[in-house]
Amino acid sequence: MTLVGVAVGAALAIVAVFIPWLPDAASEQADIIDSVYWVVTIICVVVFAVVAGVSAYAVYKFRAPPGDTDDGSPIHGHTGLEIVWTLIPTILVTGIAVYSGVALAQAEDLPDDHSVIQVTGQQFAWTFTYPDVEVEGDRPLTTGELVVPIDQTIRFEITSKDVIHSFWVPEWRMKQDAVNGITTHTTVTPTQLGTFPVVCTELCGLGHALMRSRARVLSQSDYEAWVEEQQRLAREGGAIQGMELFTQQCGSCHTLADAGTEGEVGPNLDEALQGADAEFIMESIVNPSAEIAEGFQDGVMPANYGEMYTDPQLESLVEYLQQATGGGAR
Ligand code: CUA
After folding, report:
1. Cα separation values, 116 from 112, 113, 128, 197, Å
2. Residue 10 C-alpha to ligand 1 middle, in angstroms?
3. Beta carbon of 208 within 6 Å of any ligand 1 atom
């Protein structure tokens, strides 16, 4: 049993050490978290090797000869040995706790010139609000994808509209629960340009596996251009924006062939909205309780899209849905 354990443990250790299974480290905080991770892993591998090695040796060396059914001779404990094997783990665990605490404090360190983005989780989509970016109608910019400038420290203020979700961009490492009624925080300084997944890592219901978005890290100038484009879209609308909003906010729950989404939490919109007029579609978005599709429950779809988005944004969404389901002119 022990030999099998050692063999499997050794094989797993080789997999752990030689396969690059951590995602890219794309933030300043990621380097700190990875250091803690590897220090703890190496300590675990050493402790495992010693314990398994001594066990395997003892099993082989002190095994009973064939036919020996006697009890072993009584032994007295070894006080020195017991002190040693209590002291070593105490020192190791205390050391790991102190080291992790210092690393976490470093990772959460917030420079004065940071910016703030509010993250809201709800079944089953993420919404990102930029309190410092104003759009049409004195509202803060709200999007379904996270767009940030490189090398800028961001303080994420995280909350939930319903159950507990968990906000995580694996490449950034920092992970934080989104809890209804309170605001939690995490700090990230992205150091790599590119597109990364935003995932929910707390089992939150039927659509949990599809509760994903994406984080795009842009250069400072591209970021500013993006902000201006968002302000223009929030003012002017348009079906292209509608399709983006749909994919980011609605696709994890609703199937729509045109957008290539396959969510099954809410009604299939290719069927439910076929030939529907703009008024019905708008009502279904801002007041989802008005009419419930057969076989579905009231209260599942969030009722706050009317508050989160500007009228031109909502109209874009309606325009797109009408086109995509054959109700309006293409
Ligand atoms: Cu939200 Cu899992």
Report:
1. 11, 10, 10, 20
2. 35
3. yes
- Measured in angstroms, how far is the CA atom of residue 203 from the centroid of ligand 1? 5
Print the domain residue range for 243.
Answer: 239-324
The answer to whether residues 227 and 120 belong to one domain is: yes
Q: Which amino acid is at 238?
A: G
Ligand 1 atom having least distance to the Cα of 203: 2
The CB of 121 under 6 Å from ligand 1? The reply is yes
Domain count, the chain: 3
Q: Which of 126, 127, 119 is nearest to 211 (CA)?
A: 126
Regions of the chain where pLDDT drops below 70: 1-2, 327-330
Distance 279 CA to ligand 1 centre (A): 31
Rounded to an integer, what distance in angstroms lies between the CA atom of residue 251 and that of residue 239? 16
pLDDT in tens, 133-153: 988 778 888 888 999 999 999
CB of 211 shorter than 6 A to ligand 1: yes
Q: Are residues 184 and 155 in the same domain?
A: yes
Protein residue with its CA nearest to atom 1 in ligand 1:
165
- Whether the Cβ atoms of residue 328 and residue 278 lie closer than 8 Å to each other: yes
Which CATH number is 181's domain given? 2.60.40.420
Of 289, 288, 275, 278, which is closest to residue 311 (Cα–Cα)? 278
